[in-house]
């Protein structure tokens, strides 16, 4: 199937898409592994987050927010994979949607770290925000 796509895509155009495709792969790997980590040790993740957010209003809503974030991470990863295929076909809808969902999740993480007063953790989230913003920029321009 990939060879069929590559036949229809001009190789120069393909090479021009490599930064977008690489960043979409980064998004897929980041969020699908994060999704897997959360569901493979759900109770451990909840325990860790309740401890992390002790003394804040977030502690009482950890299970709900973890569920919502996990769903968003899965969607970001799946849409990124679909986006890789679609970008090769000339359609950027799912790739852009993946970036938007990824940024939403990362901003939720950033806000959470600030609420927990984990300023070092908040700073580290920036490492993930930068490539997603760059991918988003490449896709819309």
| Total count of strands | 0
- List low-confidence stretches: none
Radius of gyration: 17 Å
Shape, per Cα inertia axes: elongated
Task: Report helical residue fraction.
Answer: over 70%
Mean pLDDT: 94
Biggest sheet features? none
Number of helix segments? 6
Structural class: mainly alpha
Order of helices and strands: HHHHHH
Distance between the termini: 28 Å
Amount of beta strand? under 5%
Describe, in plain words, how this protein is organized in 3D.
It is built from six helices and no strands. With 141 residues, it is an all-alpha fold. Helix 2 packs antiparallel against helix 6. The longest helix is centred in the N-terminal third of the chain and has 30 residues. The model has no long low-confidence stretch (mean pLDDT 94).
Blueprint (SSEs and pairs):
Elements: H1 2-8, H2 11-40, H3 42-52, H4 62-89, H5 93-115, H6 119-140
Give me some keywords for this one:
mainly alpha; single chain; 141 residues; 6 helices
Would you kindly provide a brief summary of this structure?
The chain has 141 residues and is mainly alpha-helical. It is built from 6 helices and no strands. The two termini are 28 Å apart.
């Amino acid at each position: 199937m990939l060879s069929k796509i590559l036949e229809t895509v001009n190789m120069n155009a393909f090479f021009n898409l490599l930064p977008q495709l690489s960043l979409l792969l980064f998004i897929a790997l980041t969020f699908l592994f994060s999704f897997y980590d959360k569901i493979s040790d759900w109770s451990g993740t909840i325990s860790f987050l309740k401890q992390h957010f002790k003394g804040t209003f977030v502690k009482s809503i950890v299970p709900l927010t973890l569920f919502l974030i996990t769903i968003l991470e899965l969607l970001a990863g799946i849409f990124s994979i679909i986006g890789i295929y679609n970008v090769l076909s000339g359609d950027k809808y799912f790739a852009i949607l993946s970036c938007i969902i990824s940024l939403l999740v990362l901003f939720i993480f950033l806000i959470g770290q600030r609420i927990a007063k984990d300023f070092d953790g908040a700073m580290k989230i920036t490492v993930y925000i930068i490539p997603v913003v760059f991918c988003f920029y490449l896709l819309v321009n």
